Each structure stands twice: as structure tokens, then as C-alpha cells.
Amino acid sequence: MMELARDSEIDLILTKSISRFGRNTVDMLQASLELCGCGG
User: Fold this and answer.
1) 9-27: per-residue pLDDT in tens?
2) Could you write out the three-class secondary structure of 1-40?
3) What gap in Å lies between CA 7 and CA 20, rounded to an integer?
4) pLDDT category, 4, cuts 50, 70, 90?
5) Cα(36)–Cα(28) distance, rounded to whole angstroms?
């Protein structure tokens, strides 16, 4: 999923719960920042 987002093949990721996006808080925050273009 992250690779597809990096390649601009997908532009929106919806999750029912933040725990479904990532189990490790640091990794989840880094991925969120990368996806929003805010850093990372």
C-alpha cells in the first residue's frame, strides 16, 4: 500500500481504526507524515 502511494497510484487511504494502519506508533506516525507530505 505504501509503495502504491509513493508511486501516486493511490491517493487516499481510509481505515476504520488507526490501529489497522499500524501497530507500531513510531512507524505509523512516520508513514502518516510521509503520506501527507509533511515530512518523513
Assistant:
1) 998 888 888 777 788 889 8
2) CHHHHHCCCCCCCCCCCHHHHCCCHHHHHHHHHHHHCCCC
3) 22
4) very high
5) 12
The pTM score is: 0.60
Angstrom distance (rounded) from CA 31 to CA 18: 12
Residue type, 13: I
Query: What is the Cα Rg of the chain in Å?
Result: 10
Grid cell 512507524 is found at 27
